[in-house]
Amino acid sequence: MTVRDWRGRLPESKSIRLRDEVIRSHRTGPGAVTVDAPDDVRTATEGLAALLDGEPARGLTGAAPLRFLALRASRIEGDHRIEGDPSLFARPITPLLDVLARLGAEATAGADALTIRVRDPWHLEHPIDVDATRSSQFASAVCLNAWSLPEPLAIRLRGDAVSAPYWRMTLARCRAAGMRIEEADDGIVIPPAQQPNALDNAVEPDASAAFALAAVAAVSGAARLDAIPTDSLQPDARFPSLLRAMRVPVATAGDALRIEPAARLEPIDADLRDAPDLFCVLAVLCAFASGPSRLRGAPHLRIKESDRIARTAELIHRLGRVATECDDGLAIAGHPGVDAIRPFTFDPTPDHRLAMAAGVARAAGAPIAIDNPHVVAKSFPRFFDVIASG
Q1: pLDDT tens per residue, range 365-381
Q2: Going by CATH, does the domain composed of 124-198 fall within 3.30.110?
Q3: Distance (Å, whole) CA 367 – CA 370
Q4: Interstrand relation of 368-370 and 344-346 (parallel, antiparallel or unpaired)
Q5: Catalytic residue set
């Protein structure tokens, strides 16, 4: 399994596309879904259209789509229902219910659905305090839906915010659509009576997907990744510097990256507080490094699609390496080579990042059978097809 000399189209940024579709729903309705769109984009776009038509939104598997659609529903008078996988509703939902209540919506979460009753859309309480200690998505969900308001809205972030670059991404996409936003010490103020302008339909490639392919290239073959912006809004766009720190040959030519296999992976110490989606794949690279690595700064990894700290440690243990769990990440005792690894089966369900991490390990030569590889459809449906094409 390799991406030897692969060159092709990466999926577009899921995070940017999700934000753009919510904004569009306040103008003309969401756009069309491409055939190879990630599941999160497809279900969110279809869900937005359903809510605007007074129908339930169904099939959600991602936290961002749930949070963004819930706040979109709260702008529409009536009764709404958002359905999804039970694992989604097992993730932290109290901050979302709290925000909805502050905006005058009655919301109830069940095992696989969120019901929202709206009688007076966005009865504003000033300011709107949003818990940002677990995710910036709750604040982003409010901002993305703050169009056509009858009065100014102040959003104040409570606590030590995590994933702050995603909050800045939200502000940037809203401003790109024409929203005037006034910065405050502890949040923002959005003036009233604003309408979104049209957004460019082109979206930059997904940096998390690019990193997964680059990691495969680093251990097997080579790849050229095109249209990688140097000024990306995505926090995961830092991945070339992480690869270089591990002595992976990464060359830049215009907006393209060329990744060659590393002669030897060097260990790394990395703070992933603002880029937790890099964790699983980077941890597997560290497992094949020539010494001990430390990935830290991201305790919120425990409340993603899975407990990513524990599940990634499990995968690394199956690779015959030592990985010590910490509150905010892993300490990994790396070791080059795969000769001592016994064949095993790994099931990443329901976590797409774990599936891609297992794919990187298999590309390095580890004898892994991956059950349910289809979970990568959440963010990169063609991942296993691409790395098998070489």
Answers
A1: 999 999 999 999 999 99
A2: yes
A3: 10
A4: parallel
A5: 277
